[in-house]
Design a protein that fits this description.
Layout: H1 3-17, H2 20-27, H3 33-52, H4 61-85, H5 88-96, H6 98-110, H7 116-133, H8 142-164, H9 171-193, H10 202-229, H11 232-238, H12 241-253, H13 260-279, H14 284-296
């Protein structure tokens, strides 16, 4: 497939993740964030394991647990803490900083060249998210800010290490390993920190099915496929599709108004995503290395 096709398929993942807030608030019981995160990750991971019939070798178990923690367990727990203690716009803006973090982490762990255009595009995207989501009465809670920054760093580390550690299996199997590991860690945390769930309704189950099958299994398979094929900086900036999608869904589904400033923010985000793909476009030498890497990996 062409690079453009890979980018479009990868961008589908954060675009669908933008539905998480809507589905969670409209269909799931409140007050059980870790339990619901576990129910989103663990069944999806086990289902993919059953489909792929591929377990991680013993030498990979430590890496899989670390990746599952960074990409799911630690990331989602810190995300919920930030969401509870900060206005949604502030939390999302802090999360958008992961695009900048990935550029510098990739330099240290992968030796990827830092391009000024990529840094500028990522910074402009953060500004766009801020205009899109932050209201005039945004309060900053220190613990919430720390959680937001920690969540962004966790996702950034998971993205870069998922590129650095590429097992000789399909993206679907790699997704199954990480979802199962992250879901197991979340399940253990939920049993320690949260009360049991109340009886679930049909609407609750529908929300969990969407978040698990589509919002986790399908989308993370696309995301990790993109991580294996596209430059880390180019992948990470695609994550800014999520707040844009969330705002659009709120406008369509919940009749939320869109101000001119929000429309400007959305335009800046989309422009920064386009600029980020241009700035991170690999050289011919890098393309050759990537092609050789892809021939070694069975990517779905």
């Amino acid at each position: 497939m062409s690079r453009s096709t890979d980018i479009l398929l990868t961008a589908l993942a954060p675009a669908i993740w933008g539905s998480t807030y809507l589905v969670t608030t409209e269909t799931l019981p409140a007050g059980y964030p870790i339990t619901l995160a576990a129910l989103r990750a663990l069944p999806a991971g086990l289902l993919l394991l059953a489909i792929t019939r591929c377990l991680p070798p013993r030498a990979w178990i430590g890496r899989v647990l670390l990746l599952g923690s960074f990409n799911f367990a630690l990331f989602w727990v810190l995300l919920f803490i930030a969401a509870y203690r900060l206005p949604g716009g502030v939390a999302a803006t802090l999360g958008a900083l992961q695009a900048v973090m990935v550029i510098f982490m990739a330099r240290g762990w992968l030796g990827t060249k830092i391009r000024a255009g990529a840094v500028a595009a990522a910074a402009a995207g953060v500004l766009g998210v801020a205009l899109l989501l932050i209201g005039p009465k945004a309060d900053l809670d220190p613990i919430g800010v720390a959680a937001g920054l920690g969540g962004a760093a966790s996702m950034a580390a998971g993205t870069v290490l998922s590129r650095k550690w590429q097992p000789p299996v399909s993206a679907l199997s790699f997704t199954a390993w990480q979802l199962s590991a992250g879901g197991l860690i979340l399940w253990l945390l939920a049993m320690l920190l949260e009360p049991p769930l109340p009886p679930l309704t049909a609407l609750n189950y529908a929300g969990l099915l969407w978040l698990g099958l589509i919002g986790a299994a399908a989308t993370y398979a696309l995301w990790f496929r993109g991580v294996a094929r596209i430059e880390p900086g180019a992948v990470s900036i695609l994550g800014m599709m999520s707040p844009v999608s969330a705002v659009v869904l709120g406008w369509l589904w919940l009749d939320q108004a869109l101000s001119p400033l929000q429309l400007l923010g959305a335009a800046i985000v989309l422009a920064s995503i386009w600029a980020g793909q241009r700035a991170n476009q690999p050289s011919d030498t890098t393309k050759g290395r990537l092609a050789r890497l892809q021939r070694k990996i069975r990517v779905v």
